Amino acid sequence: MLTKANARVIFVMAVIASLMLVTLNGVKESKGLSPSYSEVKTTDFVWTYNSTSREVAFTAIASGISNYTWDFGDGSIGYGEKVNHDYAEGKNYTITLIMKKDGNDITLAKYLNMTDGGTPAVDFYWEPETPTTSDMIQFWDNSTDPDDDIYNWTWDFGDGSISYERNPVHRYADDGTYDITLFVKDYSSGGNSVTKQIFVFNVPPVADFYWTRESNSIKFLDYSHDSDGSIANYTWDFGDG
Is the pTM of the predicted complex or chain greater than 0.70? Predict the structure, then answer.
C-alpha cells in the first residue's frame, strides 16, 4: 500500500523533471520537480590547503555523477571527482563545480579566501607582575592574527626551560633578570616572535627570635627562616645603644 509517508519519500528522492503520484484516493497527480531541489542536500565539495605551495586539493561529495567540471575562479578549469590546483596569487576566488547526473546539471559554488592576512602580532603578559622565586608564574598568550590561524606556541623562559602550551605556568629557581621569548606559528605566514624581560625577586627571609633569661643575662636565639636559601648575615640592635 502506498502511504503518505512513502509518497513523500518518492517525491524527494526523484531526479526526473516531473513526477506522477497516485494518492490514497486513487487520484493521479503530476508535479514538477527541479533536479537541484533533490540534489542540493546530497551534494557538496570540500578542500584542503597547503599554505607553503598554495596547492588546494578539491574533492566532490556526490553519487551517480557522470561528469565533474571545476572552475577554479582564476581562469583555470579542471575535471574529475578529485582535483588539485595551484594558485599563483593570494586573493579571493569563487570556486564553481558543475556535476552532470542523468542528463541534468547540478551547480555548486563556494568562496575561497587565499589572501595572506599578515604575520601574527605576538604579545604576552604574566601574573603576578612582580614575581618571586616562590611564585608559580602564570604566563598568558595575548597574540592576535589577521587570519586567526595560530596553531603553535613556543616559550623560552631564559633559564633553559621550554614550554609548548599556550598559557604555561613556570617557576624560577633563582632570582635575577630573564629574557622570555614567545614564538607563535600560523598557517599563512610562518610565524613571529617577541622577547620581554622579567625580573624575579628573591623571597626575603622572615626574621624572628626569642630569648631566655640565664642568671643576670638574657640569651637571644634566632628563629628566622628563609624559604628559598640561607641567611647570610645577622645584625642585632638591643635597644640600649
Answer: no
